[in-house]
Amino acid sequence: MGLDTKDFAILGALRLDARMPIRDIAKKTGLRPSTVHQRLVKLKSEKVIEAFTIKANNAAVGEGFIVFMLIKTKPQAVVNSIIHNEHVKEVFGVTGEYDVLVKMKFSDVAAFNDFLLKFRKHENVEATLTMVATASIKEEI
Predict the structure, then answer these.
(1) Is residue 60 in some structural domain?
(2) Range(s) of the domain holding residue 75
(3) Per-residue model confidence as pLDDT tens digits over 68-121
(4) What is the strand order of the sheet 88-93 is part of?
(5) Are residues 77 and 127 in the same domain?
């Protein structure tokens, strides 16, 4: 599906506030409400919009300790074992020395340490490189 400037304008408005009413999106984008509605239906049906979600305050929901981990492994074996873990928020296959990049959120360093001790026992994990976020400068959904 080819997106045009109207589609990108609608997506931009929804990125600011996924609960924005159609009338407000129409005002913000200069489109008619019926046009916004039709395009939203199309964007959802063609899977351009996968979900409407929220951006929670990490600290307020007990996920203020954010970790990025590069993993050298047989990717599918490890991905299958951690993808449904509550702490794992994003998983990417990457190029370079490592195979997988995982973004995780924990309540504190102790919770991360518990996860890490169990994870490192995984037989397919060859190496990891862990980076702890010290500041959240920009995080989008």
Answers:
(1) no
(2) 65-132
(3) 999 998 767 777 778 889 999 999 999 999 999 999 999 999 999 999 998 888
(4) 88-93, 100-106, 65-73, 125-132
(5) yes
Residues 38 and 73 in one domain: no
Same domain, 75 and 121: yes
Please name the residue ranges forming H helices in 3-139. 5-16, 22-29, 33-45, 75-82, 109-119
Instruction: Tally Cβ neighbours within 10 Å of residue 81.
Output: 15
pTM above 0.85, yes or no: no
Give the CATH number for residue 27.
1.10.10.10
The residue among 44, 51, 7, 50 whose CA lies nearest residue 29 is 7
Percent of the chain with pLDDT over 70: 98
